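Reply to dn_fold:

You asked what the input looked like. This is it:
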Amino acid sequence: MRGKMRSPEKKSYSPAFEIGKPLDARGVAEVIESKNPKYPKGSIIHAFVGWEEYTVLPDLPTTRIIPGARETNLPLSSYIGVLGMP
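and this is what came back:
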């Protein structure tokens, strides 16, 4: 996150945040609608997501489904903390 809080002119490993655009970071999300068979509706995924109520995601190799996330009855926030990030 800190590496993205800079002027866009400064080169870095990650693009800078853009003024007026939602912030983004690794997070856990529920797939509400999908045209990609790899991520069916209802899936819980770990991906780079926009910090907004709804976002459209590209098909990135770092996006993955969290198997069994609904069956554990754990808060989804657990998957970016104690249960680990990929």
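The chain has a mean pLDDT of 89.
Hope that clears it up.
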